[in-house]
Amino acid sequence: MTNKEILIKNLRTIPDWPIKGVNFRDVTTLFKSPECVKIISDEMYDLYKDKGITKIVGIESRGFVMSSAAAIRLGAGIVLCRKPGKLPCETIQESYAKEYGIDTIEIHKDAINENDVVLLHDDLLATGGTMKAACNLVRKFHPKRIYCNFIMELTTEFPHTRESFDKDVEITSLLQF
After folding, report:
1. In this structure, are residues 30 and 11 in contact, taking their beta carbons and an 8 Å threshold?
2. pTM for this structure?
3. DSSP character string of 2-68
4. Antiparallel, parallel or unpaired: β 77-81 and 55-59
5. Nearest-CA neighbor of 54 among 150, 174, 165, 138?
6. How far apart are CA 162 and CA 126, in angstroms?
7. Which of helix, strand or coil describes residue 134?
8. At what angle do helices 34-48 and 62-74 cross, to 10 degrees?
9. 67 phi and psi angles, rounded to 5 deg
10. Which residues are catalytic?
11. Alpha-carbon span 109 to 118, nearest angstrom
12. Please, what's the largest Cα pairwise distance for the chain?
């Protein structure tokens, strides 16, 4: 069985959640499997081992899990990208439109600098709103390079999401549905 087959086999899909017609892909079932955590960590390491990554930005909250594992493997620092009011020091923010309103994310003001090569990580790419906002937020720090990684990507429901990102941002996902 391939790594992708193992991940798919361990991924829970919940039909009609949170609303009818949506098949929710629950990555928490991957996180509880040591084999799946190792596979995801290994795959992320293989993708980024030669990219010079110095910081990994984990997007709240499921992005925190594998960004930590990847940071250990890549010898990089971890930056938390959180909802407002969750970080204790001075932050910079980025607001973005969601399906039902406006949301905001923030990062500590001293988290990234112009010498960093940054990998942003989250569990899922669908509409891309949160990750695009995170990319815009990280750009404010003027890092050398930005990469984005996802455990899974919903290409059938959202086939053009990648096109909405800046062309200089390399996007990878381990699974595509």
Report:
1. yes
2. 0.95
3. -HHHHHHHH-EEEET-SSTT-EEEETHHHHT-HHHHHHHHHHHHHHHTTTT--EEEEETTHHHHHHH
4. parallel
5. 138
6. 9
7. helix
8. 60
9. -65, -35
10. 62, 99
11. 15
12. 47
Rg over CA atoms, the chain? 16
Q: Which amino acid is at 94?
A: E
The pLDDT tens digits along the chain (177 residues) read: 999 999 999 999 999 998 998 889 999 999 999 999 999 999 999 999 999 999 999 999 999 999 999 999 999 999 999 999 999 999 999 999 987 789 999 999 999 999 999 999 999 999 999 999 999 999 999 999 999 999 999 998 889 999 999 999 999 999 999
Angle at 10 between CA 18 and CA 39, to 5 degrees: 120
